[in-house]
Design a protein that fits this description.
Blueprint (H helix, E strand, L loop, with lengths): L5 E5 L6 H15 L2 E8 L5 H22 L7 E7 L2 H12 L3 E5 L7 H4 L3 H8 L4 E4 L9 E6 L3 H13 L4 E8 L3 H6 L1 H29 L7 E6 L2 H12 L3 E5 L15 H7 L3 E5 L2
Parallel strand pairs: 1-2, 1-4, 2-3, 4-5, 6-7, 6-9, 7-8, 9-10
Antiparallel strand pairs: 5-10
Length: 283
């Protein structure tokens, strides 16, 4: 990811949207980005009710901005639109040229079955931009970033975005893989050769990604690369517990539904279980 020049943060006016606003403001200052704060009013209401809700939303959002930021905000817009929430967020992000969508955590996120169908889940599924789901306080720069790497285009995009927004953080990049069955049955020597070849290949790719990131944003701490043999889910879960990151970055695969391939096996589990912020990107 070359740069983040415009951030769109969507607010539903609840408490869970406030950390997302704080994080978006922190990233705006860090990256020198433009920012749009968006609230979507549901359609189909009488015009007078719609206009009242628009004005009430504008008033609440202005109060939250004033409480969160002291001073004049430049390159900032506050938009309250009427429409279906998912489509309006996605369309407005495209209209504004946003490079990153920021959303607040949802109270249902910790339960996988209930998470499917929420606005957050649907935006993650459909967005062409990386989506940052915020659950932490959001006022200070990230200190520890964990990036799950699986050689996919989505993982590459997520890593690039994570290195941009976590340029001041210590970043651990973890690649989990399982030895092919042919290597297991071929004997110890063949298995060791497969492990060595995989490690060399992955490190070469990651070194290239890190060099490209350095050319865009000075990284204060050189990222750590960790290649682990094992199930990706259990490896990343254990890393979350041991490393205690404040941001997890991971890719998804294509446009499939979150109930199936996209997040059904690995990404959905991590998205719903991680206690830190989660950055998700798809190609």
């Amino acid at each position: 990811m070359a740069s983040i020049t415009h951030i769109l943060v969507a607010s539903d006016l609840t408490e869970r949207s406030r950390p997302a606003l704080h994080r978006a403001l922190q990233l705006k200052q860090q990256l020198g980005a433009d920012m749009t704060l968006l609230h979507v009013v549901e359609p189909g209401l009488p015009p007078a009710v719609t206009e009242r809700r628009r004005q009430e939303a504008l008033s609440v959002l202005r109060e939250e901005i004033n409480a969160a930021y002291r001073g004049e905000l430049r390159r900032f817009s506050l938009d309250v639109l009427v429409g279906e929430r998912l489509g309006t967020i996605i369309e407005h992000a495209g209209t504004k040229g946003a490079d990153l969508i920021v959303l607040g955590d949802t109270t249902k996120r910790r339960w996988k079955d209930l998470f499917v169908g929420t606005t957050t889940e649907r935006v993650v599924r459909h967005s062409s931009q990386p989506v940052l789901v915020v659950s932490g306080p959001g006022s200070a720069p990230y200190k520890r970033v964990l990036a799950a790497w699986d050689l996919s285009p989505g993982a590459r995009l997520a890593l690039g975005a994570a290195l941009l927004i976590g340029s001041e953080a210590h970043c651990r990049i973890v690649h989990a893989w399982q030895v092919p069955l042919i290597a297991e049955f071929a004997g110890k020597e063949e298995g060791e050769r497969a492990v060595a070849e995989e490690s060399h290949h992955v490190r070469a790719l990651l070194d290239r990604e890190i060099d490209e990131a350095k050319s865009r944003t000075p990284l204060q701490i050189a990222p750590e690369i960790k290649i682990v043999e094992g199930s990706p889910y259990f490896v990343i879960r254990d890393e979350l517990r041991a490393y205690q990151p404040d941001l997890l970055a991971m890719g998804t695969h294509g446009r499939s539904s979150l109930g199936t391939a996209l997040v059904g096996s690995l990404a959905r589990d991590l998205l719903t279980e991680a206690s830190c912020d989660v950055l998700v990107a798809r190609p």
